[in-house]
Design a protein that fits this description.
Order of helices and strands: HHEHEHEEHEEHEEEEHEEHEHHHHH
Number of domains: 2
Radius of gyration: 32 Å
Strand content: 5-15%
Mean pLDDT: 83
Shape: elongated
Distance between the termini: 34 Å
Number of helices: 13
Oligomer: single chain
Largest sheet: 11 strands, mixed
Number of strands: 13
């Protein structure tokens, strides 16, 4: 029975199993790296854009707009600058956040303050409107898996990731830590033991960085931080209350602003006009979350290009590995090729056999690389969700996968040209001579 081309190629590859496997792995790593970089770049961008919420602007005393967004929305680090609350009230008093006619969707002005933590998870002090009017994802409001929003001081609402990792549930009482606590982000702070908080709500997962946060009332954090001042003034054992607060205690680190719009997800025409007016306020930074995230990925794209160039280099290296593997095997297979020629195999068929073997190595490596990329993307997504609370939905677009596989096969075929030419030019008589 005549031996088919497939049988010849299969036996050729199996006879050099170690070389075949290492070559396939090299191609798979290159393809997997390329797919992960291309796929995760898009998924990460969508996750950050989705997680920026429905605030039109964020105001803060921090000097850099991008830092304002990263610190306020993604809790990258604790803000270092404060706004006095009375100044905040003056700034937002004339902003178009409410529609007197009732025909349009009202906006909001939500003050926020950061500075405390619980077991390394950030604490956000704000007003009840953060849990009722602010959308963590555009058009997707908060949902509670247990309890509801706070309605008084010394009550805390826990994000989904924070609740899962700390085991907090309704009715638990906790003590907040000043600063970053036991987080790796910085040195530990002191505990506010005088003012324990009760868990009154647990948020459902939102797929945003807010899932890592604990939310308390703004007045609660003012009371907690006024405790040290009041103890110095009135002696140890004095317990601060809201009535003891003065203007210097009422500080915030920023505010989320959304203006009157047609729907909960639309952008008003006055946005740029209001932003320009706010920017004239001395010592005030105005940040547009959507714009700053776009700018962030513009910066990151430069790094992407370097990583993609590295992945492309690895792919080219895998092509070279295929060429070397087949080239080296030609020296060992000259006699086999000569025998095939004697048995009636033409030069062109020998050429196509080697070229097909090269292409098959590229195809097998590409297929394995697709599975590696899928596993790697899921691993990265799980780490991002665990560490940052961000839900990244990795997906390998069919057209991207097909393009990478075709590119891998073409590159492998090109790499196989030199070994194929060597096989084509193999002399029958010379290589059939018995060894002396």
């Amino acid at each position: 029975m005549a031996m088919t081309d497939f049988t010849i190629i299969r036996r050729s590859m199996s006879s050099r199993m170690f070389s075949t496997v290492t070559t396939i792995i090299t191609v798979a790593v290159a393809v997997g790296l390329m797919l992960v970089l291309l796929g995760m770049r898009k998924a990460a961008r969508e996750s950050f854009q989705r997680g920026s919420g429905n605030a039109h602007l964020i105001i803060s005393a921090e000097p850099d707009p991008m830092s304002v967004v990263l610190n306020t929305i993604f809790y990258s680090r604790l803000p270092q600058q404060f706004l006095m609350y009375d100044r905040y009230e003056r700034i937002v008093s004339g902003l178009p956040t409410k529609d007197p006619s009732g025909k349009l969707q009202n906006g909001y002005a939500i003050p926020v303050a950061q500075g405390d933590s619980y077991k390394g998870f950030p604490v956000l002090a704000t007003t009840r409107e953060f849990l009722t009017d602010f959308d963590p994802q555009l058009g997707v409001p908060w949902k509670f898996s247990q309890g509801g929003p706070f309605d008084g001081n010394m009550q805390v609402v826990v994000g989904a990731v924070a609740a899962k990792q700390t085991g907090l549930k309704l009715g638990d009482r906790i003590v907040l830590t000043h600063g970053v606590g036991d987080s790796r982000a910085g040195p530990p702070g002191h505990d506010h033991n005088e003012h324990p908080f009760e868990v009154v709500g647990v948020l459902a997962p939102s797929g945003t960085a807010h899932d890592r946060a604990l939310v308390v009332s703004l007045e609660s954090t003012w009371i907690v931080h006024a405790q040290d001042r009041l103890e110095r003034e009135k002696g140890e054992g004095f317990l601060a209350t809201a009535a003891d607060l003065n203007a210097s205690d009422r500080k915030i680190t920023g505010a989320l602003l959304r203006f009157v719009a047609e729907t909960r997800t639309s952008t008003p025409a006055v946005l740029q006009q209001v932003a320009f007016a706010l920017k004239r306020e001395p010592g005030l930074t105005v940040a547009q979350p959507a714009f700053e995230i776009q700018k962030l990925f513009g910066i990151v794209s430069n790094i992407d290009q370097v990583l993609l160039a590295m992945a492309a280099t690895v792919m080219v290296s895998s092509g070279i590995a295929i060429m070397l593997a087949l080239y080296n095997s030609m020296e060992q297979r000259r006699r086999q090729i000569a025998v095939l020629r004697v048995l009636g195999c033409s030069r062109s068929r020998i050429f196509s056999l080697v070229l097909t073997e090269s292409a098959l190595l590229g195809a097998l490596g590409a297929v394995v690389g697709v599975f590696l990329a899928g596993a790697a993307q899921n691993l990265v997504a799980a780490i991002m969700k665990e560490r940052l609370g961000l839900v990244i939905e990795p997906a390998l677009a069919p057209e991207l996968v097909l393009g990478i596989i075709v590119s891998s096969v073409l590159l492998a075929s090109f790499a196989g040209l030199l070994p194929a030419v060597m096989a084509y030019r193999t002399a029958v008589v010379t290589n059939l001579k018995p060894a002396v």
